[in-house]
Amino acid sequence: MSVGRLRYPPPNMTLPTTQPDPASTRVVDLPLDDTEDSPSTRRRRKGIFILPNLFTLAALFGGFYAIVMAMNGQFEQSAIGVFCAMVLDSLDGRVARMTNTQSAFGEQMDSLSDMVSFGAAPALIVYEWALKGLGKWGWIAAFVYCSCAALRLARFNTNIGVVDKRFFQGLPSPAAAALVMGLIWVVTDLGESARTQPWLVWMAFGLTLYSGLTMVTNVPFYSFKDISFKRTVPFIVIVAIALGIAVINIHPAGVLFSIFVIYGVSGYGVYVWKRLKGKPVSVISTSTDEPDEEGLHR
After folding, report:
1. pLDDT tens digits, one per residue of 190-211
2. Does residue 298 form part of some domain?
3. Alpha carbon distance 112, 103 (integer Å)
4. Is the Cα torsion angle 161, 163, 167, 173 positive or negative in sign?
5. Mean pLDDT across the stretch 232-257?
6. Residue 236 falls inside a structural domain
């Protein structure tokens, strides 16, 4: 039996020549392979501005460094760490505005850094330095300071759109930390004999409570935010800055502590002066539409 070759189509068979009806045709979109990333379907990832957040992270490190130094009994280094964090905290916002790199992430990061460096760190350090000997009264004072710092930061974030930019509502947390840590720095610089004075414990107790409670008051404190670093100034201003730096270097602990003591009571002076002049003392510049938060804006 012989096997022949089959040809397809057979010679005597004709294929249909009719075209399909265009109305009956459908275009089916097949899904792309998961491994393929087309430029049109690839999502753009959001990044983080590195420059202002570097200052914020450095400020956070200053607070953490202060806590570690206090655990090792080096309270002078703790005070220097908090004061360095203050300088860095004052720069991150200005750097973000000058470079147009503001972001919601940066705002939240700054608040968390402030809570560590100017809330938890001073409270723990002053407790370890002086308040531990008071027993429950000591840690209660430290907790009051820490909780007031958290409340002050939460209120600041809530009222950021309605507060007069020229003033802070209550003592800012960096200045409160400077009062507490400035006392520690001054006494530590004077020597061990000054630290053993019996009145020192109660002075630290009172200053800690004063700093904490002043943070949550409505007393206006000047914010210095209306000072522009892009404007030209007279030559005498530069000379005054140079003299100020020289004076601080004479005795950094005493001079810085004195400056923040004056600032820490200046708000009450402004409050009394406005009351006597019949001017409004509230730093809330506009009203809000949130009835649940009405108490925050009084």
Report:
1. 888 778 888 899 999 999 999 9
2. no
3. 15
4. negative
5. 91
6. yes
140-172: pLDDT as tens digits: 999 999 999 999 999 988 887 777 778 888 999
In the numeric block, the tokens 């720069």 are attached to 91
Q: Which domain holds residue 85?
A: 50-268
Dihedral pair phi/psi, residue 163, rounded to 5°: -90, 140
**HEC-encoded secondary structure of the chain:** CCCCCCCCCCCCCCCCCCCCCHHHCCCCCCCCCCCCCCCCCCCCCCCCCHHHHHHHHHHHHHHHHHHHHHHCCCHHHHHHHHHHHHHHHHHHHHHHHHCCCCCHHHHHHHHHHHHHHHHHHHHHHHHHHCHHHHCHHHHHHHHHHHHHHHHHHHHHHHCCCCECCCEEECCCHHHHHHHHHHHHHHHHHHCHHHHCCHHHHHHHHHHHHHHHHHHCCCCEEECCCCCCCCCCCCHHHHHHHHHHHHHHHHCHHHHHHHHHHHHHHHHHHHHHHHHHHCCCCCCECCCCCCHHHHHHHC
Q: Is residue 104 part of a domain?
A: yes
* Mean local confidence (pLDDT), 250-271: 93
Residue 182: both structure tokens together = 């400035």
Structure tokens at 252: 């950094």
Mean pLDDT of 241-269: 93
Contact in structure between 119 and 175 (CB atoms under 8 Å): no
Which tops the pLDDT comparison, 95 or 126? 126
**Domain-located, residue 134:** yes
Which pLDDT belongs to residue 99?
87
| Domain count for the chain | 1
Supply the pTM of this predicted model.
0.77
- Residue 167 has which token pair? 């003033």
Burial (CB < 10 A; 0-12, 13-18, 19+), residue 63, is buried
CATH number (domain holding residue 89) = 1.20.120.1760
Q: Residue 241 corresponds to which tokens in the numbers above?
A: 């800055």
